[in-house]
Amino acid sequence: MDTGEAIADHVGVPTVVLFPTCLGDVVARQTVTDAELVLVRLGFDVRQARGATCCGQPAFNSGHDGPARAVARATLRALDDGTDDPILVPSGSCASMVRLHWREVFHKTDDADGALRIAKRVRELSSFLAEQSATIASLQPQLTARVGYHDSCHMLRELRIKEAPRDVLRAINGIELIELPSAERCCGFGGTFSGRYPEVSVAMADSKIQDMVDARIDLLVSADPGCLLQLGGRMSREGSPVRTLHLASVLAEALA
Amino acid sequence: MSVREDIGGSPLPDGWAAPAHQPGAFELPTTTFEERAHRTMARPFARRAIAGATDHAVSLTQARFADVDHETLRDQGRQIRAHAIANLPDYLEQWIANAEQNGTTVYFAADEGEARRIIAGICVDENIASVVKSKSMASEEVALNSALEGVGVDVVETDLGEFVVQAMGDRPGHVIAPILHRTKDEVHELFSKMAGRDLPNEAEELTAFARAGLRHAFLTADGGITGGNFLIAETGEVMLVTNEGNGRLTSSVPRVHIALVGIEKVIPRRRDLAVLLPLLTGHGTGQQITTYVSITGGPRRDAEPDGPEQTHVVLLDAGRSALLGGEFEEALHCIRCGACQNVCPVYRQVGGHAYGWVYGGPIGAVLTPLFRGQAEGGEVAQATTLCGACDDICPVRIPLHDLLLGLRRQRDEQGEVPRREQMAFAVWGAVWSRPWLYRMTTAVGRGSLGLLARDGVVSSRVPGLRRWTDGRNLVLERRRR
Questions:
Q1: Cβ atoms of A92 and A159 closer than 8 Å
Q2: Do B383 and A73 count as a contact with CB atoms less than 8 A apart?
Q3: What is the Cα Rg of chain B in Å?
Q4: pLDDT tens digit string along B417-434?
Q5: Given this model, what pLDDT does residue B6 score?
Q6: pLDDT score, position B168
Q7: Closest Cα in chain B, distance from residue A12 (Å)
Q8: Contacts of residue B473 in chain A, CB cutoff 8 Å?
Q9: Alpha carbon of B369: minimum distance to chain A alpha carbons (Å)
Q10: What are the angstrom distances between the C-alpha of B185 and each of A186, B12, B189, B203, B322?
Q11: Sorting pLDDT into bands at 50, 70 and 90, what band is B44?
């Protein structure tokens, strides 16, 4: 493609905002980088959400609404930039927090309207990518792997997103998608739960990992960095040969 | 021929000395969820038994509702329960009037102690020296068995699972499957010890052994104590489901029948059972209907060959009425099917005893703080990942996830959160609500983890992360070229 075309293409190019979340800022940076890479390849202008911190979920889910609101407010105000650009979140759980629970967090506060505005703009990344399946397929992504997908609880049972990430995986040449029998069972992360009850949490991960061994997958994919931290962390400790990757990273590798 | 002439049976074997339920049933204040969970998790057989049984139960439930309009049925179930609870005082009054009309003596027990005193009192007044009991979680709530034994009444649990629980000095681990956490081998060992000989390790043989003794117990007991699945307001009846027939024998053979039932179990009409019964049995055991559904409506009437001479019903409050009209009222909609326990990924690992009181799993994590108070029971509401699987299976659509969140909030409001946690979140909130401090701390966090990592993996026991990295590595996503 020549420069003239590129510039022409750029006019009216849709812009999206990428909200990395705290997990993306601390342990899952590559996921965020890869999400950006993929979105650019799909023809989007990607803007990083400057000043956004965390969605407040760790405190909210522990019953500490004060700290949850304080942290979520900083993120809300950073995201509320006066545009209608979609805000993409590479974490099912955080997307669910903003879309569904911020209205409770900011109920009867000055930010109640802002919370609704942001909730409408926020999209979980894989559901957004699934709408681009045709474009993705046209880019001929290629990755040879026997893949299992793990559903993030909040993404599945709160946002009701089940097929979208699987559709994205199916758009990649060479991927054999295996439906794991325990795909929908919680991995045991649960945010602070994993630190409060480590033994139970690890046992919950193990119950899923056994399924992956039985299914002989070589790559486990999820759309939630929390689940990947948990399952990947346990598999790493146990010396499992199964790789764990975020959907965005799978796509980035397949498009590389 | 009357039921009494029909049953027969042989006395309980000599080895049988019905021990009281362990007082350890109420260890909430002295142990933590983690400690109790560890006890079950340290027993690999128990873990496998719980996971296997719950997975099986979930698949039976799914199969049961595969070809019906399950969602509509759940909507209807929710409507009936919500309506009954919203109008609970009226329906209770109606139920009481009709029950008394039928000849049943009705009592109201405000708390556990009162329930124990009332029932022990009936036993003393009516010269009841022995009772058979069919499974009742309400009786677990009030620790009834030890109270009865305290006044010299012999108690025999007649649900096969509860029979095992009682003989082991154990506690039920599940609302409808009390020995879900036990294996056949353990039952074989127990029964062989009771029999004084090595019984064949076959389910049928073991059941037959218990059955022979239980038959005799049914025949000789002076009183029968049951719970109740529903109280039908328009008729004053008590409805009871069992698969072993022990509920029917308990409520009809002994001369006195006493039912202990939570006040929230009331439903307006018999026809409501058309919705609630299939929901209860389908979510409990995957059955269209249980083998026995008994509806008892008072003492034996003239010309009836069977039935008790007296029927008493003790209505148990014990924290229930306090929930009416409040944030947690929906917890009263529960019909005790156990489906949320079956589907819970935490329960699947730890079983019912980890919850420290009577009820385990999601509904236990909700009811325990509500009935025992935040100071004693608040911790168990933390012991879930909020995965929402319970919300999706509950036959009457109790929003367990929201109730759990509400209880966590209430614990904070009531000042029952450990000080260290309180402080940690206060600091966290102060720091991460400021973007520049957030950037700084996340950069420091990344840097430190980077330094501690070897090949992108933090496996050492980092201060503050020790518990996390005990069984897991912290895998840092590495920059790919």
A1: yes
A2: no
A3: 25
A4: 999 999 999 999 999 999
A5: 53
A6: 87
A7: 31
A8: 233-234, 236-237
A9: 14
A10: 31, 21, 6, 10, 43
A11: confident
Is the pLDDT score of B23 beyond 80? no
For residue A8, what pLDDT is reported?
Answer: 47
Chain B nearest CA to A205, separation (Å): 10
Interaxial angle between packed helices B44-64 and B273-284, expressed in degrees from 0 to 180 and rounded to the nearest 10: 140
Give me the interface pTM, i.e. the ipTM.
0.94
Contact A178/A212 with Cβ under 8 angstroms? Answer: no
Residue of A96, A208, A237 to mutate when probing chain B, most B C-beta within 10 A? A237
Name the percent of chain B lying above pLDDT 70.
94
Closest residue in A to B434 (Cα) is A74
Spatial distance between the Cα atoms of B209 and B197, rounded to a whole number of angstroms: 11
Kindly give the pairing relationship between strand B237-242 and strand B292-296.
Answer: antiparallel
Question: How far, in whole angstroms, is CA B115 from its chain's centroid?
Answer: 18
State the nearest Cα–Cα gap between A224 and chain B, in angstroms.
13
In A122-149, which positions are buried (b, 16+ CB within 10 angstroms) versus exposed (e)?
Answer: bbbbbbbbbebeeebeebebebebebbb
Q: What would the mean pLDDT of A18-25 be, rounded to a whole number?
A: 96
Q: Which amino acid is at B360?
A: G
Computed over every residue of chain B, the mean pLDDT equals 92
Cβ-based neighbour number of residue B481 at 10 Å: 3
d(CA B258, CA B269): 22
Contact list in B for residue A58 (CB cut-off 8 A) is: 425, 428
Rounded to whole angstroms, how far apart are CA atoms B333 and B319? 14
Q: What is the pTM of this model?
A: 0.94
Q: At residue A48, what are phi and psi to the nearest 5 degrees?
A: -75, 140
Q: Closest chain B residue to A63 measured between Cα atoms? A: B409
pLDDT tens column, A51-69: 999 999 999 999 999 999 9
The CATH code of the domain at B3-321 is 3.40.50.10420
Judged by CB atoms closer than 8 Å, whether chains meet at A73 and B457 is answered as: no
Instruction: Give the tokens for residue A237.
Output: 């400790």
Q: How many CB atoms lie within 10 A of CB A170?
A: 15
Distance in angstroms (rounded) separating the CA atoms of residues A253 and B16: 67
Pairs across A and B, CB distance < 8 A: 186
Of B51, B383, B472, the CB nearest to A237: B472
| Average pLDDT of span B6-18 | 56
CB-neighbour burial class of residue B456 (10 A; exposed 0-12, middle 13-18, buried 19+): middle
- The secondary structure of B119-177 as a DSSP string is HHHHHHHTT--EEEE---HHHHHTTHHHHHHHTT-EEEE-SHHHHHHHHHT---SSSS-
In tens, the pLDDT along B250-301 reads 999 999 999 999 999 999 999 999 999 999 999 999 999 999 999 999 999 9
Rounded to 10 deg, the angle between the A247-255 and A163-170 helix axes is: 20
Contact B449 A186 (CB under 8 A): no
Please provide the DSSP assignment of A113-134 as one string: HHHHHHHHHEEEHHHHHHTTHH
Encoded tokens for B214: 């239980």
Q: Nearest-CA neighbor of B237 among B313, B176, B309, B301?
A: B313
Nearest of A242, A178, A241, A243 to residue A215 by alpha carbon: A178
Domain boundaries, chain B: 3-321, 422-475
Q: Tokens in use for B388?
A: 């929402």
pLDDT digits (tens, 9 = 90+) for B132-173: 999 999 999 999 998 898 889 999 999 999 999 998 888 899
